[in-house]
Design goal:
disordered N terminus; mainly alpha; elongated
């Protein structure tokens, strides 16, 4: 699943850029590498030839490469946290943020105009300071491991788009944040939290229409795979879900990456299922149905709204702790760095430092919630395709195996890394579940899908 409400409510405040340009590198489900089938290819009915894996296994060379890539990703995660805090503290202690505030005040007396000046300056300064890490993590590393097709010019264009999006969204959120702080100095943490709910829902509604098309092209799946789309509709009816054909898309991920993925996004009228073209090229129709069955599960099981509600509750506690910490820091150290009060725009890097630290600490909780929902989606995919796909267990197991092979997933993540960073269960665990979950062979009822 892709959730932009958390970046809106928190990461717009706690991160110098929304990284829309880089697809989520924790793919939901992928497929077995094989020549793409013709759209007219009928569903397979004969015996399965491929043996489905029961564990996640890589040959020695691929295993070594996957471990090296994964280790670099883990290191970058923690380096990113430390660097972000360091940049915010630098912009605060050097009075750079205070200088931006002074420029904004000289140019306008209106608070919203001051935010429209201050936020882009701050976002640009922070982004430029972290650009070497962004370049290595988002471009150089994937090129070194052969996972990307993106040119430097394309990457730079996406980096600039991210900066522009951050400036625009950040101006809105920062304006609201400081407006609430100034009008309710003792309760702003609660009132601002309330406001993040409609803001986040509004962004979730608009993001598929406004943000995603800035980085990729989307084509209705029925235009490229009509036969597959017909099978998808049958699966959707089995799930009791109505998603118009016009909202099932193929995304041209191959213009920037060699990895595989699929995801859901949007709410209400904007909800959609997206599968990457790389995934479609490397999978059979049965395996594609397992991919989409996983995504459909997020809708049917209401994972988007459930995770939204759970994370918003966490954010409420985070905002209160941030309020306490921010008040303490500004009262003790603010005047030494030209910060007049919590309601002063110059306090922004302090607020970012506090929220970044707190969001880092709650990452294991957020990821734990996500792992639970992703496991349910795996189970739902097996149940909803039972009777539609000849052998859903084999199809999902093969899909997950290829996910690891193509995306260089860690074959043996350390328990701490899994606990702190993983939004999905490790692949070996998912494959073992896919290979063994067969309630229909034991006469047991399906748990998540209504039996036909």
């Amino acid at each position: 699943m892709k959730f932009w409400f958390f970046p809106l409510a928190l990461a717009v405040l706690a991160s110098p850029a929304i990284r829309c340009a880089s697809p989520d590198h924790a793919p939901l489900l992928a497929a077995k590498a094989r020549p793409p089938q013709s759209p007219a290819t009928p569903p397979s009915t004969g015996p399965l030839v491929d043996r489905a894996p029961r564990r996640y296994r890589l040959d020695p060379e691929k295993r070594k490469k996957a471990i090296a890539y994964s280790r670099d990703q883990y290191i970058l995660y923690f380096v990113d946290f430390v660097l972000s805090i360091s940049i915010y503290l630098l912009l605060w202690r050097t009075r750079t943020a205070a200088a931006f505030r002074d420029w904004a005040r000289r140019l306008s007396r209106r608070h919203i105009a001051q935010c429209a000046i201050f936020v882009p300056l701050f976002a640009a300064a922070a982004s430029l300071l972290r650009s070497p890490l962004d370049y290595y993590a988002g471009f150089a590393l994937d090129h070194r491991f052969g996972l990307t097709t993106q040119s430097f010019a394309s990457w730079l264009g996406d980096w600039a788009k991210n900066l522009a999006i951050t400036a625009v969204l950040g101006t809105l959120v920062v304006w609201i944040f400081y407006l609430v702080v100034r009008r309710a100095p003792c309760r702003w943490w609660f009132y601002f939290w309330l406001l993040t709910i409609p803001l986040a829902l509004g962004f979730m509604l608009l993001e598929p229409f406004v943000i995603e098309p800035l980085f990729f092209n989307f084509t209705p799946l029925e235009k490229t795979r009509p036969a597959l789309t017909a099978r998808v509709e049958g699966m959707l009816r089995h799930a009791g879900l109505e998603v118009p054909r016009s909202r099932i898309f193929e995304m041209d991920a191959s213009t920037k990456t060699k990895t595989l993925n699929a995801y859901v996004s949007g709410v209400g009228a904007s909800k959609r299922v997206v599968v990457w073209d790389n995934t479609l090229r490397k999978m059979s129709e049965d395996e594609t149905l397992l991919v989409l069955g996983h995504e459909v599960g997020h809708y049917v099981l209401r994972h988007i709204l459930k995770e939204f509600a759970l994370i918003e509750l966490l954010v409420l506690g985070l905002f209160y702790l941030g309020y306490v910490a921010l008040i303490g820091v500004v009262e003790r150290l603010g005047t030494r760095s030209a910060v007049e009060s919590v309601g002063d725009l110059a306090s922004f890097p302090i607020a970012l430092s506090v929220l970044t630290a707190l969001s880092f600490l709650i990452s294991p909780v957020v990821n734990g919630i996500s792992r639970h929902f992703e496991h349910q989606a795996d189970q739902f995919a097996l149940e909803v395709t039972y009777g539609i796909v000849q052998d859903p267990n084999a199809a999902e197991a093969r899909a997950l195996q290829t996910l690891g092979e193509e995306d260089l997933a860690d074959p043996d993540p350390h328990p701490f890394i899994e606990y702190w960073l993983y939004s999905h269960p490790p692949l070996d665990e998912r494959i073992r579940f896919a290979a063994t979950y067969k309630p229909w062979t034991e006469g047991k009822p399906l748990e998540l899908v209504r039996q036909r």
